Amino acid sequence: LQVPCAPSQPVTSSESRRFTNKHSKKALKASLTLGILLGMFFVAWLPFFVTNVTQAVCSCVPASFFDVLTWLGYCNSTMNPIIYPLFMRDFKRAMGKYLPCCRRSGEPRPSAISLSMRNSNSGPRAATSLKNVL
């Protein structure tokens, strides 16, 4: 007794290469985005922390210089919402969906109830009791 089996199509090397190239491009883009974000973080906050430790040890840092470094760190925090949409398509779509300034004219505005239902993973459920669960 023989069971007929569907002929399976072997994966060709060009399909495999295309699949690998697609994923390697995504990984490269993610690595680039992460590198830019971390690089900006270190450039902005490392001088602040080094100066903070120096100030604790020798009290020789002028207050105005310390203020400039603090604001440099704050500027880094304001750059994150600019960097994410530049490099991440999903983030850009989410911002466009929820911010009125970025929404397309034909898109409806999401209601607060639909947002809370979507975010809480709750919805219409059958009543459950502890007895039913156990």
From TrEMBL:
Transmembrane segments: 27-48, 68-87
Localisation per UniProt entry: Cell membrane
GO cellular component, one term: plasma membrane
Taxonomic superkingdom: Eukaryota
MF-aspect GO terms: G protein-coupled receptor activity
Segments of this protein annotated with the region Disordered: 113-134
InterPro entries named in the record: GPCR_Rhodpsn, GPCR_Rhodpsn_7TM
Key words of the record: Cell membrane, G-protein coupled receptor, Membrane, Receptor, Transducer, Transmembrane, Transmembrane helix
Keyword Transmembrane helix listed: yes
Location of the G-protein coupled receptors family 1 profile domain: 1-84
Entry-linked Gene3D superfamilies: Rhodopsin 7-helix transmembrane proteins
Protein name: 5HT6R protein
Encoding gene, per UniProt annotation: Htr6_0
